[in-house]
Specification:
The protein is an all-alpha fold. About 65% of the residues lie in helices and about 0% in strands. It has a two-stranded parallel sheet with strand order 1-2. Strands 3-4 form a two-stranded antiparallel sheet.
């Protein structure tokens, strides 16, 4: 109504302080709450005026304030303390009394909020202030004559104060109050004080703990209230490190045994706590167990792991009484806690005894009917694998089970450490093993592929993205052929068809890593061809955008020479793309593209790059793209070019790039050595003969198929893979990239690179390492049909390399109305490591 609007309207000319005073005096509760929420800002802006004019009004408002305003005030007071807007002295003078005044608010939530603020304030207050303002009043507030709420607050404050005073003051003034509250008539107070004994023990030292705290804990552990006994048990477990061996064996161990024996007859909540602390308890008491006690605790743990499973009878959930359902939920929590403690129990039994003592329990936890249990054991799987070390093969099948789990939450938990788990599985826990032991686990690859397909079919794309990122570890644990036939094509399909950008990028990066470690040149060329034709020259602008993402990953993962040899020209060709978004993305990538060039070897490629940028500057009509082009030109001008020779400023990057190039060349050489070894199958080749071949062989650099729109010098014949090649695909792992093999071949690299160039290319004078030829894709294929490798024979249709240049663009496609193939400018660049 107009009257309400008039009453709620505030003069806009008022300052922040004046407005706050006005609203606290005459405004509504919601306005007052807003002012109190804004109090930290006012304190930072004008602390003096806020303390003088606003804070008194806040005090008045809090006397009659509702719950929301009280909670807001507690949070604001704590924020002011954390912001250090005023000195501790000023804060104590202005705010401490307000906090203490509202500690015993009738609403428990409000009281706890003010208590949390006070406990934070205690951390920074000086001793004298603590003594006079908090400790002295606490003596009266902890008496039995006070309310239960007052005594509960006193318990928590005592636990905080212990660390602020010396041992003499604690013994004389604090410990009598502690004893009194431990013997309070209300079980809530005894339980609360018991939980503070851990903090008190850490503040008073070992001697006083043994003489004062331990007797109280023993008495509380026999209390009639189950919550008090539970608090005593948990405090004892947390204080195990403080007590010596005698105390543990003579005092604590009997208490723990008694507690465990009675736990099944007591409330299930005690079993939940016991199952959670059991691993820590067994670890803390490990040295004092007799063999019989050791066995008892192990059997007790096994019993907890299957608690509730025997009672399942197939009834419909709607027919089960509510109390039974509640009990089953508690049993699930117990089994979940057992799964959490499994690594600790593995240490308890010694990993050498895992198969006899704990394997059946581990099997049950991995096959538990409840998702939270399987989720927890999946989180612990890596820790268990590390502990088993060479015995990790014992849990191979459980890995398969969890990978095939119907719940994606379980898969999500497992794949966090999937690379480390697979590495342990592949090496059998040993750091230097020649044979890959995953060959004895034939179900692994189907399980991995099924897991990816299940994640892909769900709406939980983040799990799918993470799984694809983790699959980048596969080249280190399975063979190159297995990756090529079972995973690589799937990654390519995801990049081409998936609708979630982060998933596409994850698949693209993993695909690049698979390509990086592929050990067959024919397969590498096929993948490169697909990337260029189906992504870089795809009809959908979305695919061309993903090609640029892939180029970025190629620059990161491969050597500079590899990118320049295969991807430089297809990338910069997209400067002519009909879709503005593609040109825009390319502009952002150009600085990284330029960073792959080395002068003077790549001078001609640099000229091509500069020519493309000039065309963009002159011909670009889209204003957004043009603005980015201008910024990119400035960045390109500022870039310093890398030279063929090492430079100080680029030393680390050049060294890393040289190492990448060495590994890429070794892949070619090792493949050739493997072929030669296969040719000697008729006559056995000794290791010495094989090593001599490794030293003497000169491997020519093979070229891409001729229908890829770039030119690569070298012969085009590729030997098809054989069954023996697949069997020996494990000949070289990543560790095979050793300096010995590299040095044996490095002297031959120039000879390999200087082989005769591809037919039909005319050298351009003065450039030495590059040449240019412009022709249509179709004529290029026709001319070189005879030199196509077996894998790219006419029986295997290849995707078209032509892409229309029309301007009409649909949501994901720059549909071309012109059916003529686009002219492709093809550049030949000799390999020059």
């Amino acid at each position: 109504t107009p009257e309400e609007i008039e009453r709620l309207t505030v003069d806009e000319d008022l300052s922040d302080i004046e407005r706050a005073v006005y609203l606290l005096s005459a405004g509504q509760d919601v306005q007052g709450t807003s002012v109190i929420a804004n109090l930290p800002f006012l304190m930072r802006q004008n602390p003096t005026e806020t303390l003088r004019r606003v804070l008194p009004k806040v005090r008045e408002a809090l006397h009659v304030a509702g719950v929301e305003m009280q909670l807001t005030a507690a949070v604001s007071f704590l924020t002011i303390l954390q912001d250090e807007s005023v000195s501790i002295h000023s804060y104590t003078h202005s705010f401490l009394q307000v906090i203490l005044l509202h500690l015993e608010h009738r609403d428990t939530g409000v009281s706890n909020a003010w208590l949390e603020t006070l406990l934070s304030v205690i951390e920074v207050l000086p001793k004298e202030t603590l003594r006079h303002e908090i400790l002295n009043p606490l003596v009266s507030k902890a008496q039995l004559s006070q309310t239960v709420q007052s005594r509960l607050v006193s318990c928590k404050i005592l636990g905080k104060l212990t660390n602020k005073f010396d041992a003499h003051t604690i013994k004389r003034e604090i410990l009598p109050l502690v004893k009194s509250l431990c013997q309070d008539v209300e079980y809530e107070v005894r339980s609360c004080m018991c939980r503070q004994l851990e903090n008190i023990a850490q503040g008073i030292g070992t001697e006083l703990t043994k003489s004062v705290v331990l007797p109280e804990l023993i008495e509380l552990s026999r209390d009639e209230g189950s919550s008090v006994r539970l608090a005593a048990f948990e405090t004892l477990v947390n204080l195990l490190d403080i007590f010596d061996t005698d105390d543990r064996s003579q005092t604590i161990l009997p208490l723990v045994k008694s507690f465990c024996e009675k736990s099944f007859k007591a409330d299930e909540s005690i079993l939940i706590s016991l199952s959670f602390h059991l691993g820590k308890l067994c670890h803390g008491l490990y040295g004092i167990f007799t063999p019989d006690q050791h066995l008892r605790f192990l059997e007790f743990y096994k019993k907890l792991c299957t608690l509730g499973l025997q009672q399942e009878n197939g009834h419909n959930e709607n027919q089960i009484p509510p109390q039974i359902l509640e009990q089953e939920k508690k049993y699930i929590s117990v089994r979940k806690n057992c799964a959490y403690n499994f690594p600790a129990m593995t240490v308890f039994v010694d990993p050498k005894n895992f198969h006899m003592e704990l394997y059946s329990t581990f099997f049950c936890l991995c096959h538990d009917p409840e998702v939270p249990v399987r989720y927890t054991i999946a989180i612990c799987f890596y820790e268990v694998s590390k502990l088993l070390n060479s015995g990790v093969y014992l849990i191979h099948q459980e890995l398969i089970t969890l990978l095939q789990d119907e719940s994606l939450e379980v898969l999500d938990a497992l794949i966090d450490h999937l690379p480390e788990i697979l590495e342990l599985m592949s090496t059998g826990g040993e750091s230097s093993v020649q044979e890959n032991k995953l060959s004895s686990l034939p179900d692994l690859i189907p399980a991995l592929t099924a897991a990816e397909q299940r994640a892909a079919a769900s709406l939980k794309w983040r799990i799918h993205e993470k799984l694809l990122q983790k699959y980048a570890c596969l080249p280190h644990v399975i063979s190159s052929d297995q990756i090529y036939y079972r995973f690589l094509q799937r990654m390519f399909t995801i990049v081409m068809t998936n609708n979630v950008l982060p998933v596409q990028k994850a698949a693209s990066r993993t695909l690049c890593i698979f390509l990086r470690y592929n050990r067959k040149q024919e397969q590498r060329h096929e993948v490169i061809q697909k990337l260029i034709e189906q992504l870089g020259q795809g009809k959908s602008y979305w695919n061309r955008l993903r090609f640029l993402d892939t180029c970025e990953f190629i620059i990161e993962i491969f050597s500079k020479s590899f990118f320049c040899k295969y991807f430089f020209l297809p990338a910069i060709e997209l400067t002519h793309d009909p879709v503005a978004n593609v040109r825009m993305k390319l502009c952002y990538l150009l600085p990284k593209v330029k960073s792959t060039l080395k002068i003077p070897a790549d001078k001609h490629l640099l000229q091509q790059l500069e020519m493309c940028v000039r065309k963009l500057l002159c011909q670009e009509k889209d204003k957004d793209v043009l603005a980015i082009v201008k910024r990119t030109v400035l960045e390109l001008d500022r870039m310093e070019m890398s030279m063929d020779a090492f430079q100080k400023k680029f030393y680390e990057k050049d060294l890393l790039d040289q190492e990448k190039e060495r590994e890429e060349l070794l892949l070619l050489e090792m493949e050739q050595l493997e072929k030669e070894k296969q040719q000697n199958d008729g006559r056995p080749m000794s290791d010495k003969m094989f090593e001599k071949k490794r030293r003497d062989t000169k491997t020519p650099t093979q070229s891409l198929p001729k229908n890829i729109p770039i030119s690569v010098p070298g012969p085009s014949s590729v030997t098809p893979s054989t069954s023996k090649e697949i069997k020996k695909s494990k000949l070289i792992r990543s560790q095979s990239f050793n300096n010995q093999a590299f040095h044996a071949k490095y002297g031959n690299l120039e000879k390999c690179a200087s082989k005769s160039s591809t037919t039909g290319y005319t050298p351009v004078s003065g450039l030495g390492k590059t040449s240019v030829l412009s022709l249509t894709d179709d004529s290029f294929r026709t001319r070189n049909a005879s030199s196509v490798p077996p894998s790219f024979s006419p029986n295997t249709p290849l995707p078209s390399t032509s892409r229309g240049t029309g301007n009409s663009v649909d949501p994901k496609s720059s549909g071309s109305k012109d059916t003529q193939p686009r002219k492709a400018t093809l550049k030949s660049r000799k390999s020059n490591p």
